[in-house]
Design brief:
single chain; mainly alpha; about 75% helix
Length: about 60
């Protein structure tokens, strides 16, 4: 496990960035879910984007 120390300001900036990024992750997930069964990579990409969403949410919770 890697640990870093952030100032309150840095933590807030990273949280804001992650909030903006989470919108993009949601869009990608919806896109791949709509293509499930239509392309061979859909299941793999759905899994990837779900994992990314969980990682971002976990990190955001730790920043609070």
């Amino acid at each position: 496990m890697k640990q870093i120390t952030l100032s309150e300001q840095d933590a807030s900036r990273i949280d804001t960035y992650l909030e903006l990024t989470s919108g993009r992750i949601s869009e990608e997930l919806k896109l791949w879910e709509s293509m499930e069964g239509k392309t061979p990579n859909a299941k793999k990409n759905i899994s990837f984007w779900k994992e990314m969403a969980q990682a971002v949410e976990k990190l955001r919770n730790q920043l609070k």
